[in-house]
Amino acid sequence: MPKAERKKERAIKELFPELTDEERKEAEENLKRYLEVTLRIYDRITNDPAEYAKLVTLLRKRRKQKRKNEKRRSLAYYQMRSDNVAVKG
Fold it and tell me: N or C: which end of the chain has fewer CB within 10 A?
């Protein structure tokens, strides 16, 4: 067995020690199919300028929303801490 193959096998066993050999093989096949689909989606989007533009727009909106949510959580956290300090003091 080639070194890369042994390393892959060992890594999968370390990640999923509870799986039988048959279950591990099925997990490998599922992962391979998932990666193939992901690659096809990537290829389709990067080869179609209109789809690529949609993706960039979507990612920017999600990033902006994530920042808003993080800011809200941060503000809520500091508000909660300042309320607790006021109650204790």
Answer: C
